[in-house]
Amino acid sequence: MKAERPLSPWDLPAGHPGISYLVGHTPLFALSGDPRFSYCLYVPRDHNADGPPSPLVVAIHGTRRRAETLRDAFADFAEEHGCVVLAPLFPAGITGPNDLDSYKLLDPSALRADELLLDMVDEIAARWHVDADRFHLHGFSGGGQFAHRFTYLHPERLASLSVGAPGRVTLLDPTRPWWQGTADVQELFGTTAASPSAMRRLPVQMIVGELDTATDGLAPAGQRPAPATGTNRAEYLRALYENWREAGIDAQLDTVPGVAHDQLGVLPAVKSFFADRIATQSGGTSGASGVDGTS
Question: pLDDT > 70: what percent of the chain?
């Protein structure tokens, strides 16, 4: 049987009720290749098939899986900057009843969430007019773990990257195995080895709240990063920042005053970072982030 073609907003006549589900806040759509996973979007009200494709922002949820809340937090940004926002949902319990972490660790023996995200991007590009070649990626906490590991495997697919407060980090380190280092990336994932040179063209923001120093909610001691990387999320992120800077990657480290471990608390600075990148992508200009930054 021939596969049904996904409808776009412009395929429907003006006033058709179906348009309201394809622009603005969309429903959660099952990924056609694996319906265990789904995604929702915010699509600007004036989105159409004319002109250049819209920039795509991908926002990765944390361990609590609040994908729709995260999508909603980007809605005004999407309207203002003419971008489409994709918020994937990687449910807990996929690899077993106690699974919370498989999506963020990118364990090749368990769950290749990186490939699932690329499948989602391809799928939405068949329905909406988006730039699917390179997208802007943000993740916080568990999503921050996913985001920087995704970058090791697919740097060529990103237009910019924002990594927020990961509870575990993978360093560019050819002496440590995955996930603490990158020694065996080529063997495990069938890709080229993690390449700093491929990441050096990428605008990178690393962001954390000034007060994000608590240790509750972190992985058990035996599953945490090596002691040299720190004891809390702020220290883990700084270790990752220094590791990437040593590799010649021009990352910036932003610390948001008065904020603890709170994704919505750091989002204004994330949006400012993405606004600059999207303006550059579109040939325009934008303003400064307004946070304490190190670059």
Answer: 91
Sorted by where each begins, the domain ranges of the chain are 9-294
- Residue 7: its pLDDT value, please? 94
Quote the CA–CA distance of 21 and 127 in Å, as a whole number: 12
Homologous superfamily of 9-294:
Alpha/Beta hydrolase fold, catalytic domain (3.40.50.1820)
Q: What is the mean pLDDT of residues 169-182?
A: 93
Residue 271's Cβ-count burial label (10 Å; 0-12, 13-18, 19+) is buried
What's the angle, vertex CA 225, arms to CA 137 and CA 111, rounded to 5? 50
24-33 average pLDDT score: 98
Ramachandran category for residue 6: left, alpha or beta (phi over 0 → left; psi -120 to 50 → alpha): beta
Give the DSSP letter of residue 48. Answer: -
Residue that is written with structure tokens 């498989």 in the block: 102
Of 24-38, 152-166, 208-222, 274-288, the range with the lowest mean pLDDT is 274-288
Residue type, 64: R
Rounded Cα gap, residues 34 and 27, in angstroms = 17
